[in-house]
Design goal:
single chain; mainly alpha; 2 helices; 92% helix
Length: 91
């Protein structure tokens, strides 16, 4: 009879352990995988972003040249507008 009780206790422990195993596998395992993936992905994205930020879009000479062309274009547009207004008022 004592061997039957030991078997019953083992079965009871096994029955109690199974729902805990399901709980861990359905809740904690996906959470852990997500956390692990997020941390590794975050470091990869941060590294990629920092690498990309170190590259300059324009150097100083190019930037100055583009700025000069923009100012020239702005002046031409302003001149065109002045000529248009002058021609409307004096013709």
């Amino acid at each position: 009879m004592s061997s039957l009780t030991i078997t019953d206790k083992k079965m009871a422990k096994k029955k109690a352990f199974t729902p805990l195993l399901y709980l861990v596998s359905t809740v904690f395992l996906p959470w852990w995988i997500s956390l692990l993936f997020q941390k590794s992905l975050e470091s990869w994205v941060t590294n990629w972003w920092n690498t990309r930020q170190s590259e300059t879009f324009l150097n100083d000479i190019e930037e100055k040249s583009i700025l000069e062309k923009f100012i020239e274009l702005e002046e031409l547009l302003f001149l065109e507008e002045m000529i248009k207004e002058y021609s409307e008022t004096h013709l």
